[in-house]
Amino acid sequence: MIDAVRDPRYVLPLALLVAIIVVSAVLRTSPSGEASKATPAATPAPVRTPGLDEQLLDSHRAFDLAAIAQTLEAYRAQNGAYPSTGADVQLLCAVGDNVGCVLRSYNRSLPASDGIFGYWYRSDGAAFTLYAHADIKPATDDCPPPLPAALAGGYVLCVNSKGGNP
After folding, report:
1. Is the peptide bond before 50 cis (omega within 30 degrees of 0)?
2. Coil vs helix vs strand at 42
3. Per-residue confidence (pLDDT) for residue 145, from 0 to 100
4. Can you state the percent helix, strand and coil of the chain, rounding each to 5?
5. pTM score > 0.85 for this model?
6. Which end of the chain is more exposed for a tag (fewer CB within 10 A), N or C?
7. C-alpha angle 4/7/71, rounded to 5°?
8. What phi and psi, each to the nearest 5 degrees, are found at residue 138?
9. Is the CB of residue 129 less than 8 Å from the CB of residue 156?
10. Neighbours of 113 (CB within 10 A)
């Protein structure tokens, strides 16, 4: 666990997530320390920094997939296999009968989506692949086919188990 915290693949997304939380908290509080009560007419339109919003969202998604992968490893360590989807691709836990919902007993705050797009999961029990929508083309494309239909034609982030992909 400590090695994962020191791994730069996890540190950068975690640092970005912490920065987002801090900036959000600062922006919600007025100089007097009271929560802002601005009316919609007085609230300026958000200024988008081209590329930055997408990078932050993709970092958030990568962080979520890493947390899900760690939970899957804990599940496998206890049960001897990953939760199996029969090698079919399905949403991680959009409805109660999705196979990935069993992971909630290992991590109650496990994300099933980025708040916009759901996370997808596929496993034959011996290996797994996690899929997430990406706004920016990832540096590597290690997503095995078939991609979830909802993600086809766009950029996709993937995390595969250490044993490969199903």
Report:
1. no
2. helix
3. 85
4. 40, 15, 45
5. no
6. N
7. 30
8. -65, 155
9. no
10. 17
